[in-house]
Amino acid sequence: MVADFVAHIGKKLPDDVVAKLEELGSQETAALPKALYETMTKNQKLAVELNRPSCQDTGVLQFWLKCGTNFPYINELEGLLKEAVVQATFAAPLRHNSVETFDEYNTKKNVGKGTPTVWWDIVPNSDKCEIYAYMAGGGCTLPGKAMVLMPGAGYEGITDFVLGRGMRSIVRKIKRKLGLGIRKIKKRKSYQRMLKVGRECERMLFNPTFMRMSMAPTCTASLIRQR
Asked: Could you give the CA distance from residue 170 to residue 149 in angstroms, rounded to a whole number?
């Protein structure tokens, strides 16, 4: 069932995302933007009709689990998810995107060291489990940078790095690391600005709807070209 679901999300965007794309497309008046939205709409239609992934790059699988401590299969979940990814890779099919970097080979199964990525949210005294799957692409989701700032850089240094070089790789750790080894200048505007940006990014990155929306621009006209 999970394998079928993984294959399905590579072929069809959620209804709310499709509706939003249609809404945005209807607001365009210039020729090029309208053509782009029309292409995405046609691409999604062909993906369903031809039973093919809507983008030639189906990304690296990531799973968010909201799992109760009493869920009967909690100990087997990661193994089951890996097996589901392998099955979906051949059934969908999905692009082979899991590479063992230092051994220099592609596993051709979309599983390997750290893939698929599984994020856990453990719920005490619950026997339920919710699974959110996401195909993370190298074009807009996974690229990121990390940097160790000198203590003297202060919160201005963090703000400059986050706003100037991209937020994806460090936003999740902003609150956790905030203030460690950095001089206290909480009254400065840059600190308040950085906190606001951090909270907003954290809200978006852990919102399943936002994650689904972030997939939309990556869906190209690959199916149209193949046809």
From this structure: 13
